[in-house]
Amino acid sequence: MGVMGFWTIALALVVNVCMVCDGGTTSLFLREVEKAVDMPLDSDVFAVPSGYNAPQQEFSFLLLFESMSVHITQGDLVGKAVIVSWVTEDEPGSSKVRYWSENSNHKKIAEGKLVTYRFFNYSSGFIHHTTIRNLEYNTKYYYEVGLGNTTRQFWFVTPPEVGPDVPYTFGLIGDLGQTFDSNKTLSHYELNPRKGQTVLFVGDLSYADNYPNHDNVRWDTWGRFTERSVAYQPWIWTAGNHEIDLVPEIGETIPFKPYTHRYHVPYKASQSTAPYWYSVKRASAHIIVLASYSAYGKYTPQYQWLDQELLKVNRTETPWLIVLMHSPWYNSYNYHYMEGESMRVMFEPWFVKHKVDVVFAGHVHAYERTERVSNIAYNIVNRHCTPVKDQSAPVYITIGDGGNIEGLAKNMTEPQPKYSAYREASFGHSIFEIKNRTHAHYSWYRNQDGEAVEADSVWFFNRYWHPVDDSTSHVLH
Ligand SMILES: *[C@@H]1O[C@H](CO)[C@@H](O)[C@H](O)[C@H]1NC(C)=O
Ligand SMILES: *[C@@H]1O[C@H](CO)[C@@H](O)[C@H](O)[C@H]1NC(C)=O
Ligand SMILES: *[C@@H]1O[C@H](CO)[C@@H](O)[C@H](O)[C@H]1NC(C)=O
Ligand SMILES: *[C@@H]1O[C@H](CO)[C@@H](O)[C@H](O)[C@H]1NC(C)=O
Ligand SMILES: *[C@@H]1O[C@H](CO)[C@@H](O)[C@H](O)[C@H]1NC(C)=O
Ligand SMILES: *[C@@H]1O[C@H](CO)[C@@H](O)[C@H](O)[C@H]1NC(C)=O
Ligand SMILES: [Fe+2]
Fold it and tell me: To 5 degrees, how large is the angle CA 400–CA 401–CA 403?
């Protein structure tokens, strides 16, 4: 009885203490309050690569530094293809990619396509998108773009074959922008000793729309800024509100124009009919990307797609079910409060039924992690409209703290709601490290700390294989 008895008493004490407190932890971490300022156009991170027609992201008044602006993402459903995208400025050049695996001298060529677009008085460079297919799993590949003119070389590593016990490490970044803080977030991610292998990006990329006429030069600079990571590992894209770029006053009436021309995703591979919602499988994870700014009501294409998609998830093959979206469903800041509510009402019962492990969102420029809660009992008349603890529900994590020009969201609802386990208004990023089919280690890193300091961390127990209570801070009742 001894040990058991002790734990029963300890647990009772914990329960007692928590009966009287409201939510989890509101971090009292103090940081310098500075305005988030965009890096000036002549910053090192925006430098244009040298050489005639060099692959980059447009905007060529600086010709001194070797810099980067190529980006890759997963190119199929299972991780055997990669979409390579880049911009040439002086002339179209070639859309071909030359690639070869580390263990082979046999160089292959993949042919792609190029697109251009105009936005008010801005004309894009030649934007190339080339998909490399039939790659071997778990293999390092080198690739070259800019063939015929200035050729630049990069590399990436393909994921292991999709399967239940494949460890894999994802980075989480959201609402990044291009301020000095954004640069710190990206540097922090790159230097994190847990070594993220793929970034799950939860939307709001460049914040070009904060400039007059949405100056699309800031889309180019963002591409060059992030290239140092995204040319070497895929970033899985989610569309945020700053990708909408709808400005009828200046004749820009097509939503998502810069985003869809610049960032391609493999949406057709998951039978999606639009690039804003889709899924990929990578290692032991099934990742569903949802669109907060596309219709999701009943009968809409996104609704129909998600309905079918959730049936396709096979937890024997991919134990971890991860959802990305931009606008959070559970958010206790006084910014964007309840904006995710209508989508939550539509889809939350499905997430509980299908035991989603974790939902990552952005939009709110701060950090927050919830308990496993759901709020699906409400039927207009029964008054059951409070989140309740639910071990079949996902943990909701807001990671919109990449560091963009709009600054931190510091104003929180008080008291901290019971569903909120930890919240803090600091810039940073997260790592979701899958160990096996039952365990994943999750950690959040604030920019002010050293690269290895976990400001918030928790073990995730898989909802299908190990649905044991993994809550951390308090008990809901
Ligand atoms: C576009 O228009 C703005 C405002 O009229 C002006 O400041 C800018 O120089 C123009 N850009 C180009 C590329 O013409
Ligand atoms: C750049 O490359 C393209 C395609 O290979 C070729 O047609 C063109 O002549 C090249 N331009 C120069 C200046 O080498
Ligand atoms: C951005 O971060 C990189 C890596 O830490 C650093 O080399 C570079 O100087 C920084 N640039 C700016 C403008 O802060
Ligand atoms: C789920 O995946 C496993 C492992 O790949 C496979 O054996 C099984 O047939 C799949 N189940 C369905 C319903 O497709
Ligand atoms: C915080 O947000 C609340 C609700 O929107 C508002 O009433 C309050 O004035 C805000 N406080 C500050 C310090 O901005
Ligand atoms: C899964 O990973 C966890 C954490 O590393 C470990 O404790 C556990 O033993 C592993 N399970 C198996 C079956 O290897
Ligand atoms: Fe946003």
Answer: 125
